[in-house]
Every structure is written in structure tokens, then in C-alpha cells.
Amino acid sequence: MSNVTAELTQNLKQLHLPTVRQCYEEVARQAERESLSYERYLHELIQRECEERQENRIGKMLRESQLPLDKTLDAFDTKRLPAKAARQMRSLLDGGFLDRNDNVLVFGNPGSGKTHMLQAISQELVRGGRRMLFATCEMLVQDLLIAKRDLKLSRLIKRYSRYEGMVIDDLGYIRQTREEMEVVFTLLAERYERGSVLLTSNLPFSKWEGIFKDPMTTAAAIDRLVHHSVIVELNVPSYRLEQARHNVQAGDQPIPEHPSDEPASGSGLRPPPPAGSPELHKDVVSS
Prior knowledge:
Rossmann fold, disordered C terminus, 10% strand, 2 domains, alpha/beta, five-stranded parallel beta sheet
């Protein structure tokens, strides 16, 4: 290695340009063969450095998002979606709802594809440079309760505010105590008009009092989520049940017609307010 090469390599290391340091000699030989100008040579080097940094940045954001990488858009069967839901899904992929701090509420039966849909959308948004976070409602509640116990709840909620969109999966699927749902409500209230919440549930609004345990809290939670929102209803059969029927062999135990889980009967987009609660917002955006 010549003195010039050694010095250049050291300078590139100090400037934190690892991709340029790795490929500048290769690109120099290419420039000689193709008679590239100095500007073209420099452009090629910087382009490779930027692409590598972007790829590393997206990889880091995907790890931070806690999204399962196998739940991609390509792996999602969009043909099963109702026409309206398919249009809504396509419109969400541009990420405009994040700029408006709109929420996305997805309702449907167990196995209808709610979770995969939001995971696939979120992955595409992360690959486009948006910060997203995925959590099941159960695990989120545990983290919030630990933070509350340690007097660090506000610090945790502030950390969540770094994410443009926060996916809360399976709200109401597992029955929580009043204390557990109070910390969830605190998070929803803090994110209201500050960051998007992407939420799945198999329970319509009319049954949410069983989630939040209190009519006033229920009304306030729905009020904050529905205002500035896109509501997607997946009224389709369970994908897992369809797969089980498809794979069942002749003579095997018959597959029941409906899963044992309680199906969602729609989101109840205009639920009557619980007794003693304030009137809910009327302007729901279902674009």
C-alpha cells in the first residue's frame, strides 16, 4: 500500500465514510475503464455511501419498530379484502395520515387479517423513512405499569412520542383491570393530535365499556381515537380457519363453521354514548 493510499484510507476512516473507504479503489478502476470525469467518479462514491447509510438506517428502524419482518405487503392476501378496505389500505401506504396525526382503527373477526394488514403497512412506511412502533396491547400494558410503578410513566410516554405511528394490537382481546386500562388511556390521551395510533380490535365500540371499565373513560377514549381517523372494517372469514379447511384431509375431524372467539359485529361507527357520558364527535374520516 502506497503512502497516499494509506493516508487516504486513514482520512476516510476519520471522516466516518466506510463505504467510500471500502470501494474507492474499485470505482477508480471503473472510472479509468469508462473514462469517467472526476465529478462522475465522486458522484458514484458518494451515491454508494448514501445508499449504504440509508439501508443501515432503515435496518435499525425496522429493529426498533419490533415489527415481524415476515409480515410483509407481498405476503398479505389483498384479494380477501372488501373493496373499500382495499382502497383504504392503498391510501394508507403513502403515509399522509401520519403527517395529519390521524388514527387508523381496524375492526374484524379473529383471523381476518387485521394485524398482518397493519404490520405490512407499517413495514412499508418504515422502509420509506417513517418511525413506527408495534406492540400487542398486553405487552404495552405491562411496560406502562412497570413505568408507572417506577415513577417513569411520563418518560416512557415521551419516548413513545418519537414514533410517528404506534400500532396497538388486539385491544380488548385479553380482559384487563381498571388500573391496566387507565395507563392505556393515559397514553391515548397524550398521543391525541400529536401522533398516530394504529389499533386493531375484534370488539365493536358498543362493547368497549368492558375494556375501559367506566362509561366516562370509554367515551373519552373513543372520542380521542375516532376524531381524525380512518376506520377499516374487515368483515371477512378467518384466514386461519380457511387454511385449516383447505388442508383438512378426507375423514378427518370436521372444522367448525365459526371460530370459538367472539366475532366482531362491525365497529359500530355511530355507537350511542354510554349513560352519563358526553356526546361523541361526529366527523369520522373513512378515506
